[in-house]
TrEMBL record:
The reaction(s) this protein catalyses: O-phospho-L-serine + 2-oxoglutarate = 3-phosphooxypyruvate + L-glutamate; 4-(phosphooxy)-L-threonine + 2-oxoglutarate = (R)-3-hydroxy-2-oxo-4-phosphooxybutanoate + L-glutamate
Pathway terms, separated by semicolons: Amino-acid biosynthesis; L-serine biosynthesis; L-serine from 3-phospho-D-glycerate: step 2/3
Encoding gene, per UniProt annotation: serC
PANTHER family xref list: ALANINE--GLYOXYLATE AMINOTRANSFERASE, AMINOTRANSFERASE CLASS V
Protein name, entry field: phosphoserine transaminase
Job of this protein: Catalyzes the reversible conversion of 3-phosphohydroxypyruvate to phosphoserine and of 3-hydroxy-2-oxo-4-phosphonooxybutanoate to phosphohydroxythreonine.
SUPFAM superfamilies listed in its UniProt record: PLP-dependent transferases
Gene3D superfamilies to which the protein is assigned, alphabetical: Aspartate Aminotransferase, domain 1 (3.90.1150.10), Type I PLP-dependent aspartate aminotransferase-like (Major domain) (3.40.640.10)
EC top class named in words: transferase
UniProt-recorded Gene Ontology molecular function terms: O-phospho-L-serine:2-oxoglutarate aminotransferase activity
EC numbers, comma separated: 2.6.1.52
Names of the cofactor(s): pyridoxal 5'-phosphate
Keyword terms of this UniProt record: Amino-acid biosynthesis, Aminotransferase, Cytoplasm, Pyridoxal phosphate, Pyridoxine biosynthesis, Serine biosynthesis, Transferase
Pfam families on file: Aminotran_5
Length: 371
């Protein structure tokens, strides 16, 4: 049957067909709240009380969600995770970093840590689909790893490297709000809001330990040239006033605060982790039971509960994705640079586990007709 001729029955479709790994699904309730709250905030100064109130709401909501340890702070800046990589290179690394890379996003940060003012980073690399681990190393004062590799669907535990005087940072861009974490085990847990926070992009958010805050002050006072946009001390100082140094997208702040408040009202991190785990069980158990599909990450202990990747055999995954898109089921395409015959499914807290189950029914229907 031609791809264009396949119509998935309505009773097999998810109620909401958005499965993008980022930008991700934004719930209708959040959009409605934005329409209401935005009248008082959008188009006004981000240094006045109306907008600062929303920034504070987000900061306090995240502090509650993560049971933020004493002395930790929620710091915000404009630019997204990509900008924060440069922020970290300028404001958190004294001399040399170690990076664990096992996919596209970890590799990109490792390249940023090769900045001219730093020694060449030590890179611990594993092939996509597996994971690399950080290890204590003489001369390294900053350790960095993804918590969840968005490009491949690999997740690792959050653990601090036992190295005196060093910081450990975790890229939580796609793990935030959906994977278990003890923030005590990291000095900098940073992310952007367009994935687990069911918001738009344009911000970076970092949960920073007292040691990371102290390192920020130390480097700021060292005389190192730091571009204003990337100056972490400036971001910290402004965050303490419930604002960002540069003008933020106010809509992004409101949407992220709405999702955070919603998850807190339903049980916080524990609730969100269980919800994502239920979605992942629906996806991976289905893939393991099909002759034409299998989880891309072969080690079950490394499979992410927020981004699932499934390989296909004997059927073109791109055709499946095209049929799904034509039927209103969106953004299941794989990460482009992997070049695999696979689908990538986001399972953030905003995604209903029942919709993941319906997605698998839709795929079954499409595969049967393509075959």
């Amino acid at each position: 049957m031609a791809t264009a001729d396949i119509t998935i029955p309505e009773d097999l479709k998810p109620a909401d067909g958005r499965f993008g790994a980022g930008p991700s699904k934004v719930p209708a309730s959040a959009v409605n709240a934005l329409a209401e709250r935005g009248l008082d905030t959008m188009g006004t100064s981000h240094r006045k009380s109306a907008v600062k109130k929303q920034v504070k709401r987000l900061q306090e909501g995240l502090a509650e969600f993560y049971s933020l340890p004493e002395g930790y702070e929620v710091v915000l800046g404009v630019g997204g995770t990509t900008a924060f990589w440069d922020v970290a290179a300028f404001s958190l690394v004294r001399t040399k970093a170690q990076a664990a890379t096992f996919g596209e996003f970890g590799s990109k940060f490792a390249k940023e840590l090769a900045a001219p003012h730093l020694e060449a980073p030590s890179v611990r690399k594993a092939e996509p689909g597996s994971a690399a681990r950080l290890e204590a190393e003489e001369g390294v004062d900053f350790y960095a790893t993804p918590h969840n590799e968005t490009s491949t669907g690999v997740a690792v535990d959050v653990r601090r490297v036992a190295a005196e005087g060093a910081l450990t940072a975790h890229d939580a861009t796609s793990s935030a709000m959906g994977l278990a974490v003890d923030v005590n085990e990291t000095d900098c847990y940073y992310f952007a809001p367009q994935k687990g926070l069911a918001s738009d992009g344009g911000l970076w958010i970092a949960l920073m330990s007292p040691a990371a805050l102290e390192r920020t002050e130390e480097i700021a006072a060292s005389g190192r040239h730091i571009p204003g946009f990337l100056d972490l001390k400036t971001a910290v100082d402004n965050s303490r006033k419930n604002q960002t140094y540069n003008t933020p997208a106010v809509a992004t702040v409101i949407l992220a605060a709405e999702q955070t408040d919603l998850l807190n009202s339903q049980g916080g991190l524990d609730y969100a982790v269980k919800r994502c785990a239920a979605s992942a069980e629906n996806l991976y158990s289905w893939a393991e039971s099909r002759d034409f599909a299998s989880p891309y990450v072969t080690d079950a202990a490394l499979r992410s509960n927020v981004v699932g990747t499934v390989d296909f055999e004997g059927v073109d995954a791109a055709e499946i994705a095209a049929v799904l898109r034509a039927n209103g089921i969106l953004d299941t395409e794989p990460y482009r640079k992997l070049g695999r015959n696979q689908l990538r499914i986001a399972m953030y807290p905003a995604v209903d586990p029942a919709d993941v189950a319906k997605l698998t029914e839709s795929i079954d229907y499409v595969v049967e007709r393509l075959a």
